[in-house]
Amino acid sequence: MYRNEKFNRWRRHPWHGLHARIDDAPEDIVQVYVEMLPTDVVKYELDKSSGFLVVDRPQRTTSSPPALYGFIPRTYCAEEVARRCPGVTEADGDPLDICVYSERHINRADIVLNARVVGGIQMIDGGEADDKIIAILEGDNIWGDAQDIADLPPIKVERLQHYFATYKMVPGKEIDIKVDHVYGREEALKVIAAAEKDYWNHYGELHEQQRS
């Protein structure tokens, strides 16, 4: 199922030790590390130093993600990702986020799965590009035939837009988040490629050191 490599007795870092792509798979299939579930009202996030999933903060509101929420390994949102987002000069400096729909409930995070990319949301948070890729679980019995964003009911995307537009809200305070632009599969693949390029520009030396 996953890239075949020599056995490593130590757990791999989910961001640096896994791969975005799977050998011999179509270009729209990516690996996903899942940080949060649709049932979570606590925000979990990968600790970049240790590779462990940690509690970032309890959500202030009752909002919870409408899909599995995580990131694509060996991606990074920096200059190349920002160039694909008109009106901004910076990205958020995190791995590329991805939301995955599954008909069957997956009831634990800190797992890896394969997903088919169908589109994305061009989110701008505080003037920084913070794209959210949208995908479906590979082999899903309900959503498995979806190839592009138009193949999903519009409400699926609307709920994601609402979640990301409101999950940082604090009563009495303004937030600067835009989630107006939704794009399809082809643009999503270009955003992923940009995030992969940003990763190698910023972290490629880690892998070069391992080879030497």
TrEMBL record:
Q: Which GO terms describe its molecular function?
A: inorganic diphosphate phosphatase activity; magnesium ion binding
Does Magnesium appear among the keywords? yes
Q: Which residues cross the membrane?
A: none
The cofactors named for this UniProt entry are:
Mg(2+)
Q: Give the matching InterPro entries.
A: Pyrophosphatase (IPR008162), Pyrophosphatase_sf (IPR036649)
A Gene Ontology cellular-component term:
cytoplasm
Q: Which UniProt keywords apply?
A: Hydrolase, Magnesium, Metal-binding
Domain of life of the source = Bacteria
Pfam families, per database record: Pyrophosphatase
Identify the enzyme class: hydrolase
* Annotated EC: 3.6.1.1
Tell me one GO biological process term. phosphate-containing compound metabolic process
Entry protein name: inorganic diphosphatase
State the organism of origin. Pseudohaliea rubra DSM 19751
